[in-house]
């Protein structure tokens, strides 16, 4: 094998796409190890990733793991009983509650609030004469939106930001930080659910608590873990979708000009930015419930399988000039939000947030440019998420 035993290094954190090309050329599934030493299979070709995402023989339940391959975040039961770790029928039962909250119509009704908050944040950037796209726009906007949707008090939202960063990009010199962050998350959400039970409001979390208490088959752990998942995915992914999208446009000024001048529809542009470099590298890990074949490779039951979403989205057998950013790309069947029963239910919200923020930013500031050299950009040390620490710009 030409693929390193552990391919996840600093070069991968900054630019994973050469590694993805090597994986696709190597085999349908490549054995490797994650930085914590866990053995995994890397599946990177678009056809195989798409098929695997919808294959019922690939379970997301840890009960089907052989125990050697996946260590993950070691979440407590109150956070672990979420959709990402459940197969049907439990997954179907809980997902029904979530999809009812993230309907395209309900998300579209939030667009005016997203537009107003984006304008307010851009006003602050204008007064400053520039700033950090992440800290000044991409962080506060989704945090406010998902906080308002779920009914999370403003004081607790910023704590959650710190905890998620600790989990996604843990400090190797402080292994206890992740355990502490998980404990803090759990305590925060258990308390929040209790508060919603005592004083319900017109928000999604109150509605979920009411559903649980009215006799719906939802355990207390499932309720807390749903709150965890909704807050995590409704915040972390849009933040870095915006950051990666803005950087991609700054690196391709001719494409930025198309969006700024109204020569491409913002929704179409966001679909291409999702394909080109969305933050989450891999789908939730899978465990075969029986020996399966992916391409020419046999993967034993219980092994850990990682499906490389961003590699699939750059596969030249599916996308013409796959390495090129093309906001006018027509047919764009990317897998940024997954495929099959675990397709991301919050996708409509993330799309709207990216459309509004990125478009407003490049149109408000026609001279938008990087404030540092590209070699000064720093990426989070995470193999799970391709995401920047900061994106300083001048206007």
UniProtKB/TrEMBL annotation:
PROSITE patterns: CYTOCHROME_P450 (PS00086). The lineage of its organism: Bacteria, Bacillati, Actinomycetota, Actinomycetes, Pseudonocardiales. Belongs to the cytochrome P450 family. GO terms for molecular function: heme binding; iron ion binding; monooxygenase activity; oxidoreductase activity, acting on paired donors, with incorporation or reduction of molecular oxygen. InterPro entries: Cyt_P450 (IPR001128), Cyt_P450_B (IPR002397), Cyt_P450_CS (IPR017972), Cyt_P450_sf (IPR036396). SUPFAM superfamilies: Cytochrome P450. It comes from Crossiella cryophila. Keywords: Heme, Iron, Metal-binding, Monooxygenase, Oxidoreductase. Pfam families: p450. This is Cytochrome P450.
């Amino acid at each position: 094998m030409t693929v390193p035993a552990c391919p996840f290094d600093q070069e991968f954190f900054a630019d994973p796409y050469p590694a993805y090309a090597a994986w696709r050329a190597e085999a349908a599934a490549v054995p490797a190890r994650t930085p914590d030493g866990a053995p995994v299979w890397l599946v990177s070709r678009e056809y195989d990733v798409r098929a695997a995402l919808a294959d019922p023989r690939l379970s997301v339940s840890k009960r089907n793991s052989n125990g050697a391959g996946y260590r993950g975040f070691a979440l407590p039961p109150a956070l672990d009983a979420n959709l990402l770790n459940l197969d049907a029928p439990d997954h179907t039962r809980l997902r029904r509650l979530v999809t009812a909250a993230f309907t395209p119509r309900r998300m579209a009704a939030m667009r005016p609030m997203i537009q107003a908050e984006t304008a307010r944040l851009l006003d602050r950037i204008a007064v400053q004469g520039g700033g950090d796209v992440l800290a000044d726009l991409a962080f506060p906007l989704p945090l406010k939106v998902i906080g308002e949707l779920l009914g999370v008090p403003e004081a607790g939202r910023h704590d959650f930001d710190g905890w998620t960063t600790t989990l996604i990009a843990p400090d190797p010199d402080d292994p206890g930080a992740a355990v502490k962050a998980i404990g803090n998350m759990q305590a925060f959400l258990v308390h929040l659910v209790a508060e919603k039970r005592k004083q319900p409001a017109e928000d999604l979390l109150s509605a979920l608590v009411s559903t649980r208490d009215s006799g719906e088959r939802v355990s207390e752990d499932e309720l807390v873990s749903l709150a965890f998942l909704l807050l995590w995915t409704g915040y972390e992914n849009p933040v870095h979708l915006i950051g990666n999208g803005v950087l991609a446009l700054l690196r391709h000024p001719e494409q930025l000009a198309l969006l700024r001048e109204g020569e491409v529809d913002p929704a179409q542009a966001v679909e291409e930015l999702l394909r080109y470099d969305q933050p989450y590298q891999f789908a939730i890990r899978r465990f075969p419930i029986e020996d399966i074949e992916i391409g020419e490779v046999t993967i034993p039951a219980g092994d850990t399988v990682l499906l490389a979403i961003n590699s699939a989205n750059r596969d030249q057998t599916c996308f013409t000039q796959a390495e090129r950013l093309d906001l006018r790309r027509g047919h764009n069947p990317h897998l940024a939000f997954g495929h099959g029963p675990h397709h991301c239910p919050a996708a409509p919200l993330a799309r709207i947030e990216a459309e509004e923020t990125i478009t407003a930013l490049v149109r408000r500031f026609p001279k938008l440019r990087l404030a540092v050299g590209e070699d000064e950009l720093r990426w989070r040390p995470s193999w799970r998420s391709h995401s920047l620490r900061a994106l300083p710009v001048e206007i």
